[in-house]
Amino acid sequence: xxxxxxxxxGKPSDLVQGTLDLLILKxxxxxxxxxxxxxxRIQQLSGExxxxxxxxxxxxxxxxxxxxxxxxxxxxxxTGRQAKFYALTAAGRAQLEKETANWNRLSAAINLVVSEA
Amino acid sequence: xxxxxxxxxRILMIFRRGRxxxxxxxxxxxxxxxxxxENISDGMSAEEARYSALRAFGNPALLREExxxxxxxxxxxxxxxxxxxxxxxxxxxxxxxxxxxLVIALCIGAATSLFTIVxxxxxxxxxxxxxxxxxxxxxxxxxxxxxxxxxxxxxxSPADYYDWRAQTxxxxxxxxxxxxxxxxxxxxxxxxxVVTAAAGTWNFFPLLGVQPVFGRTxxxxxxxxxxxxxxxxxxxxxxxxxxxxxxxxxxxxxDGKPYTVVGVLPKExxxxxxxxxxxxxxxxxxxxxxxRHHDWHQSRVIARLRPEVSLANAINQVEAVQYxxxxxxxxxxxxxxxxPRSMIDDLAKDVKKPLLLLMSAVACVLFIGCLNVANxxxxxxxxxxxEVAIREALGAQRLTLVREQLTESLLICFxxxxxxxxxxxxxxxxxxxxxxDLPSAQGIHVDGVVLGFACALVxxxxxxxxxxxxxxxxxxxxxxxxxxxxxxxxxxLSRTALRKTLLTVEIGVTVVLxxxxxxxxxxxxxxRTTDLGCTTDNVLTMSYTLPQQKYxxxxxxxxxxxxxxxxxxxMPGIRxxxxxxxxxxxxxxxxDVFTIPEHPPIKPGAELPDALNRLADPGYFTALGxxxxxxxxxxMQDRDDHAKKVIISNQLARQYFPGExxxxxxILDSARDKAALEIVGVVGDTLWQVGQPTKATLYFPLFSxxxxxxxxxxxxxxxxxxxxxxxxxxxxxxxxxDPQLPVSDVLTFDQVxxxxxxxxxxxxxxxxxxxxxxxxxxxxxxxxxxxxLMTQRMTEIGIRIALGAQREQVLRLALVDGLRPASFGLVIxxxxxxxxxxxxQSMLYKTExxxxxxxxxxxxxxxxxxAIACMLPAWRASRLDPMQALRTE
Lengths: 117, 889
Prior knowledge:
The complex is a heterodimer of chains A (about 120) and B (about 900).
Chain A: E1 2-4, H1 14-28, E2 33-34, H2 35-45, E3 50-52, H3 57-66, E4 70-76, E5 82-88, H4 90-116
Parallel strand pairs in A: 1-3
Antiparallel strand pairs in A: 2-5, 4-5
Helix pairs in contact in A: 1-3, 1-4
Chain B: H1 2-15, H2 17-41, H3 46-57, H4 60-69, H5 74-92, H6 94-123, E1 134-140, H7 158-167, E2 171-185, E3 193-200, H8 204-208, E4 214-215, E5 229-232, H9 234-239, E6 251-254, E7 257-264, E8 278-281, H10 288-291, E9 300-305, H11 311-328, E10 337-342, H12 343-347, H13 352-383, H14 385-393, H15 398-434, H16 448-473, H17 478-483, H18 493-528, E11 539-545, H19 554-569, E12 574-580, E13 591-595, E14 610-616, H20 620-624, E15 628-631, E16 645-649, H21 650-656, E17 666-669, E18 677-683, E19 697-701, E20 712-719, H22 727-737, E21 744-748, H23 749-756, H24 758-792, H25 794-802, H26 807-840, H27 852-878, H28 882-887
Parallel strand pairs in B: 3-8, 5-7, 14-19, 16-18
Antiparallel strand pairs in B: 1-9, 1-10, 2-3, 2-6, 2-9, 4-7, 5-8, 6-7, 11-20, 11-21, 12-20, 13-14, 13-17, 15-18, 16-19, 17-18
């Protein structure tokens, strides 16, 4: 199991932080979602391999919102309670493509190195 | 459209911040509640579900902080919060805050004032076209006497200047100017006055790039010995001619001769000093003969460099010409070399050293002020040790805590800085007004750069005062602080050590300042009490110049002077009257080289005997109390054709007639007479200026009829009582003889001396004030540290007393504790001073830099003040009631 967590000792490394951003953007691609649902979705989609420490989503979400990749609005959730729903902006979509490409390049490179050994 | 989203978020984050905070809480709670609900539906108990959810979630408080950290304006928000906290903390201890702000205000105010002056006088380029290309060029003699401070830049002879200009090509152009003085008489009934004038070559204003406001500058054809054109400076134009533009083209009378006003100079033109009132062409004040002289040194030369020629190259050309002239006139004092000096240094030559000295003194005071504030903050930090430790344990970042403390010192320094800048506005005005020697070619005023400097000082001070305490009070020993019991017996030894170190440094710097001040003060007192070599009590002096136009024959001049002397000598209230050309202590005036016919001729090229020249009437020496050492004074027979006599000063006799009797020998003065003058007397030495070594002097009979083209006379009147009370009656006698004749420099002898030592008095007083301020700061610091230390050791002292320690023992213990840093500081300071005083050596008059009396006095003062500062806390400790001390725990 990989714990994606930017609450370790000190600052999260760029790699980890970038990865979390990518996961969030990807998760939000099909539809808008609130924080809890995002955490759940990441867990499910990764086959329970990626265990995001749930709380650490929020600093990331707020940062992405400030940067204009995603936008948020308050709306009624499935339980009838008000929740903050996040959705991708156009810029966020473009960013997702860029980050996905980056990720593919990086993972391919790592794969190459690892399988070589 | 991403920027639009970002902008929207930014705006939202300013105006809806409070709401955003609430919503963030809602968001996190929503998440937790959701997770708890899910856990419960998975079959956990309510409590278990909650703990599990929290475990999966993490520390909500911290996460909230982290999310907020990503918001825009977060830096600003936390800064504002720090500011609020700091302001609250400072308000809680108003005495401390006020003290600290006052200290910083004084220090920053003084530093800003001095910087304003340093910038105007030493740093800001002069208000001329391409000022960087302008240099002064002086003559330079190779002899030893010429290489003392003040003599190594020798003013230039007219003929040398004309040769330089004609024969060298390194400079675009060279201009010359010299001082002059005129009697300005009224066209209608205005009072006559003496005006300070300057005579500049026709190319002077074009060279500087100065344009007149009205009219024009001089033309080349107007620069000749009979010239009668004049330019007015703005102040004269405004004051004397009430700003009437029609003055241009009209005539004014200078020394009784009509001059046509051709132009008015702009208001901001104040070169070389604001005292200059009129400008005339260079040759207007010269005779055709004087222009041919290579040894009549009186002019200053300004040259403008060619962009493609280096200064060294240009000067080399001038030097070649000068050396050639020297070889050509081996028997005259014609300098061997030429030297350049930047214009700004040239103007600031008299004030540069005192200014830099004061600037360093102020820097020391500022440093001490910062250390003091740092010291107080360290004490405060100690009191808040536990609070800080708890916050650190709860996850506060060290940087946040340091920033918070820095904000506090920033706030103090900012308030102090603002007050200081206001203070400096007044102080600068006062300084610029009181310090007569400051050059005024630049207006002295606060500008953007000065304000920037003040801001930089504020931040530097805040950093210096805040960083050390902040770092020392955070980061380490969190657990130690928490574990420490409420007992304070062993607490924070390291912090006390830090305070003591700060204090030691503070005292060390104070000692350096005190010693500097002590030396300057001693030197000033020496100057003040210098024996001028003549009577200075109850002596009134004044000067007048007889205009050549009206007094065109020596007989007329003699008649005026004789009549005046006769009138004054019979006036009641007057004891004696002396009339001469230049009184002792007034100025260098003029010097001549001479030869002694009885002595073997001097080798060509060797240094010629040289002496100051003075005129003296027969009653001069008795009236001024200058003693006769040999021979006789002048008498009424020494006049006209029988005036081939001279009186020499003791210094001249010692220097040029060692081991022989000078009486009856002769002096052949190069500039004065072709005939040899017989030495009839030797008189005591007088100083030509207070603070300068004595110089050989020649006195010529006043009524000889030979005035060497200089018709200025100085009168000294010894009165029975208050000399100033006689000034109007004496001036009335002059006006009765010639109502058109203005009188200048009406001063008592004491005022003349005071005027020449005003610089020394200035530096001494200011440095002393700074030293006193830092002594006060140091003693306050000492008091604070010891009080704190004693409070810390209250229990220990209580136990000691309870166990039978004598009160005197406790007192001694406390005193030794306080005096130890003081003594360390003293030793360090004395050591540092021994090195630092070398820097002010040249400013000291008859005072050794390592003067033992000053060093001893400073050491004693410091120890006494330190003892007084320590006494109160020590005494309080010794009076401690052991029961109460132990119960306080």
